[in-house]
Amino acid sequence: MAGVLVFCEVKDGKLKKASREALSAARKLGAGDVAAFATDSTIASDAGAYGAKKLFAASIGPYETEIYTSALEQAIKEMQPSVVLFGGTSNGRDLAPRLAARLNVGVASDVDRLEWTSGKLRARRPVYSGKAFATVEVTGNPAMATTRPNAFPEEQARGGAAEVVEIAAPSVDAKAKLIETKASEAGELTIAEADIIVSGGRGLKEAANFSLIRDLAHAIGGAVGASRATVDAGWIDHQHQVGQTGRVVSPNLYIAAGVSGAIQHLAGMSSSKHIVAINKDPEAPIFRVADLGVVGDLFQIVPALTEEVKKAKTH
Length: 315
Ligand SMILES: Cc1cc2nc3c(=O)[nH]c(=O)nc-3n(C[C@H](O)[C@H](O)[C@H](O)COP(=O)(O)OP(=O)(O)OC[C@H]3O[C@@H](n4cnc5c(N)ncnc54)[C@H](O)[C@@H]3O)c2cc1C
Description:
Layout: E1 4-7, E2 10-11, E3 14-15, H1 17-29, E4 34-38, H2 44-49, E5 52-57, H3 65-79, E6 83-87, H4 90-103, E7 107-111, E8 113-117, E9 120-127, E10 132-138, E11 143-147, E12 163-166, E13 196-200, H5 210-220, E14 223-226, H6 228-232, E15 253-257, H7 263-269, E16 274-279, H8 286-289, E17 292-295, H9 298-314
Parallel strand pairs: 1-4, 1-6, 4-5, 5-12, 6-11, 7-11, 13-14, 13-15, 15-16, 16-17
Antiparallel strand pairs: 2-3, 8-9, 9-10
Bound molecules: flavin-adenine dinucleotide.
Residues 201-203, 227-230, 241-246, 258-260, 262, 264-265, 268, 278-281, 284, 297-299 line the site of flavin-adenine dinucleotide.
């Protein structure tokens, strides 16, 4: 067994950021040649540019757990990799444990560091809401891991197009069928992929005031995040929720306005590279993780910040 197989996802004809990061992490691992698995063979050059020598392509349409599990299992049988990596997207996090259980191997989830030593995969995982790190060794062959979004820098390898190996669509009597897919609002970035996230909390007072957060997010090129309190109040959809029962994110910049910084919220964002907090309470726990704290009224600060960003962009 040798090499690393990476489960890749495609959006608008291009590799998703999480997949580019997982491919880059795979290359750096030094566990042999890197191959990609995807449902779209047209991304062979894109996959090659991120270091994949081969692309296992299965024409199996939109994501359905059981069908994807079987197709990926087939690619694993063909390639016999030592390691299988998944970007930590909803699909990657769904697929990895299912496949690991089927192959009776170990999987480390949400890892932010990977190491290949003496034929073993070692991974670091944030635990206890990011307060500590656990280093785990994955048993079984192939060893599997899901990578935390934004934890591994994406780096191009400048390789040629990956060689495409077709994987036949598995005949699976799936117990669940995909009926409908609803896309989020056109052009809106998802918090899972964004480099910048602007989050709003209960300090916004009501749903309509999320427009302040949206305006800043659009001006700065970021995604809209939210605390659970605002999601529970029905001000914004759950897909925006950051935290223990929402999404774990690690963007380059996280701006929190009117968010107190409860432990369950911090669990989802404290590994962000730079954190800016705007809160009128100087004792708010969010300031303990913030690199830059602004004590003040978000209704004054957020629109002023949006204006400054717009001005800076026109210069
Ligand atoms: C099992 C469990 C799981 C949970 N999972 C999550 C999760 O995934 N994500 C999550 O976010 N929470 C989660 N929670 C809820 C969490 O405990 C908090 O209740 C929640 O995060 C609070 O949201 P908030 O910060 O928006 O509201 P609050 O705690 O009410 O904070 C509002 C903040 O706004 C500030 N403020 C008010 N007015 C202004 C103003 N004009 N200008 C500036 N600042 C202002 C206040 O000073 C305050 O700090 C979970 C809880 C449990 C028990």
